[in-house]
Amino acid sequence: MDPNKQPPRELLDRTASRMRELFDDGSPGVIRAVGPVFTPEQVFEWIKQAHPRANANTSRDKIIALKQSWGLSPPTPPDRAQADPGRSAEIFRSGALILDPTPFLPNPADTFNAWIERARALLGGEFGMQAPGIECASWDAFERLQALLAPVLALTGPRSHRFNAFLGDYRVTPFRFHVDPHHECVFQYVLTGRRRGLFWDGLTLSEDRDAAWVEDTNALHTPRREPDTIIDLEPGDLVFWPGTHVHGFEVDGPSLALSIVVDRASPRQKQDVVAGLEIATIAGRAALPAIDEDAAVNPDHELIRRSPFGLAYERFDDTLIVGVCGRTIEWPDPGSVAVAMGLFDQLRSSERAVARDLIHAHACARLPADDVIGVLSMLVGLGYLRPE
Are 300 and 337 in contact (CB under 8 A)? Predict the structure, then answer.
């Protein structure tokens, strides 16, 4: 099986569109049998390419890193010819991290099933492995990641994102039930084995009564209440959950699953986003007229775009920052961000539009008609539109 063979582009595009729908909904959900977006052979090859034994973070490497952090040893120059997943692969047994994973990592000639048997024999029982950053294995793997996440990243703005592979023959995830608040969201594609995903809305948990079992990797405590969502998964299913949710998986049989992770924090500074939007929306710097605080639009107004630049937006973390003619504002309602972006996109693609048509196209429960009028009036006051 060629690890770099791409699935049909229409399948990737269709899957990416459905992933965005799950993201828009914001609750744990699943796409059933989406098609061969990945194969076990492909993903296992990516794991071997991204995490060869020669690059494992051994105990010796940890000692060297400690000495380097104290300036007691010269830094090791990076090997630019090697793929860099950003973090080393980790092996777990009974919820405990194996400090030196080297003897248990796959050999280049291993198949998935052969490696499972060998690693289980070496470790003396069930085990799990996390292999992060495997998009670095090849440009084809990287292309797959970008194609699937493009619609979501169009909403979030630039974010750190990656593949994380989870594999092994553990029956209960080595991470037990935990929450990743640094994640915006996770999509997980099941390649082999059956899995049951359990999800709790972390924002509704009690800080005092639920703390004992969250992040309890040794399973010493039982969850105080039943999960809010349970999803049974088979190979070919793609499950989604937001970073606000405590989650864990129960696994049936040797398992290989590929997580597609989007981090919450932007890799940029907020002031960089603001400055970039201010510059982009007037193509540089210029002295700006005062804001017209009394600007008002009515539904019969035809609105003329004043500038070929004038309007842009970007996401910074969970905030939509809108640039208008050299100034920026923060969109006040996270629940209507997607609707607002649609309105802004239409305005940017049109030289003129009738306010009533814009209301008809974009007003909804999340952005009522009066609010659409308010947005248009704001854009007049900031100089982007001129009413007639």
Answer: no
